[in-house]
Write a structure and sequence with these properties.
single chain, about 425 residues, mainly alpha, about 0% strand, globular
Length: about 425
């Protein structure tokens, strides 16, 4: 799917060049700070991001090539289309995004668009809905590793997922600007039951791909590693950017400007520096807010906003993932801002109910500390989760098919 080239304005060119020049000079003036920040970003990528995302990236490539995603799309079309106005294959992107985190949802959405399985508007709805944080990060890294309080992991996760469902539903009202896509969704109107159409779609998709499994596997690994290296580079660059802004004094000036806007809204000055860091990079922002001088509820709500917003680093990754398609980045950024605000509000609303549930003795999932699991164990957990999500989607589609086939017969007896 060819993308549209948008000419850059003169001011955009000057701003980009000036920003790059400023960053280069700042790095040359503060090489030690830049080096340590780069190492921190590399550690975050290798310890957390790489083992969590690599199995999901590889499996998504393989399952698309084998036609399994097309099969799932036909089964779940009756569920996803009425609720969110996205094709059934979007359920695969949503499930993988919810389970694995940023930016796998954007990558799968771009793949679906390139294969013509969704149109541009559906892709914009889907990337806004499917690109979320994963529970292992919110519970294991943020709640346990940063806050040191296991119970708030329930609150952060519940608020994050409830608010993203609201965002996904609101995005259904995004006006259409293109024709419906030709793919599994169009097959739902053809003759035969939905299960037979799903198997037919799987067969056709596999024949269109045509690659032997060995070649498909090799291509998936090669593309996955390229994507993972790019994500690691983004994390390191934005880690350096945040540190350079700190040591150069730019952060303090920006914080003062933010304070003028946020103080009338009742926002404490103590949360403004972490909020600014979170606007740039999600992990650094969550770490900073966990140590801020504010109440636990306020710190948790701000962490919910940062995780929902996801940071400029993730936005850059998403922009690269959807490059070459006609999916616009603007609706995605607006949805992330809306997600962050809703997540902060939802955190306050569910604070007491979820806290009561967390102290009721129920087992707490994803309670692995940020430094307690090895690389291989994290990768194994990620692989199991990816396989479980795929199996769950297939099962859900089959159950939906069975429910839709049930006919209720009414017998009326005349008096």
């Amino acid at each position: 799917m060819a993308g549209t080239n948008h000419p850059m304005s003169r001011w955009n060119i000057y701003l980009s060049a000036g920003s790059a020049l400023f960053l280069t000079i700042a790095i040359l003036r503060h090489p030690e700070a830049a080096f340590s920040a780069s190492l921190e970003g590399l550690k975050i990528w290798f310890d957390i991001v790489l083992p969590a995302l690599l199995p999901f990236f590889a499996m998504s490539e393989i399952l698309m090539g084998l036609g399994v995603v097309h099969f799932i799309g036909v089964l779940l079309e009756p569920l996803m289309r009425p609720l969110f106005r996205i094709p059934g294959v979007g359920a695969f992107a949503v499930a993988m995004g919810l389970a694995s985190g940023y930016p796998i949802g954007a990558k799968i959405t771009a793949q679906l668009r390139r294969q013509g399985l969704c149109n541009s508007t559906e892709g914009e709805r889907l990337v806004s809905f499917a690109n979320t944080a994963d529970p292992l990060f919110m519970v294991g890294a943020v709640a346990i590793g940063m806050f040191g309080i296991q119970e708030i992991g329930w609150t952060i996760t519940a608020a994050h997922y409830l608010s993203v469902v609201v965002v996904g539903f609101l995005m259904r009202f995004l006006p259409e600007k293109s024709q419906p896509a030709v793919g599994p969704a169009s097959l739902s109107s053809k003759g035969g039951n939905i299960l037979s159409r799903a198997f037919k779609t799987l067969e056709e998709a596999r024949m269109r791909d045509g690659r032997a499994f060995g070649q498909l596997f090799g291509d998936a690994i090669r593309e996955t590693l390229a994507s993972m290296l790019f994500i690691g580079g983004c994390i390191m660059v934005f880690s350096v950017l945040g540190r350079i802004l700190d040591v150069s004094g730019a952060t303090k000036a920006i914080q003062q400007c933010l304070a003028l806007v946020l103080r009338p809204l009742g926002v404490s000055d103590a949360v403004i520096p972490p909020l600014l860091r979170g606007i740039i990079e999600i992990t650094i922002g969550c770490e900073a807010i966990s140590q801020a001088n504010a109440s636990l509820l306020v710190r948790t709500a701000v962490a919910g906003f940062i995780i929902g917003w996801s940071g400029l680093s993730v936005h850059t990754q998403v922009a690269t993932m959807i490059r070459g398609t006609d999916i616009r980045l603007g609706p995605y950024i607006a949805a992330r801002m809306l997600h962050g605000i809703l997540a902060a509000v939802m955190t306050v609303l569910v604070w007491r109910p979820v806290a009561a549930l967390a102290t009721s003795g129920l087992p707490m999932p994803f309670t692995v500390g940020i430094g307690e699991a090895s690389f291989l164990s994290r990768a194994a957990t990620s692989l199991k989760t990816a396989a479980g999500c795929t199996a769950l989607l297939v099962t859900l589609g089959l159950i939906l098919n069975i429910v839709r086939s049930i006919r209720i017969i009414y017998i009326r007896i005349r008096p």
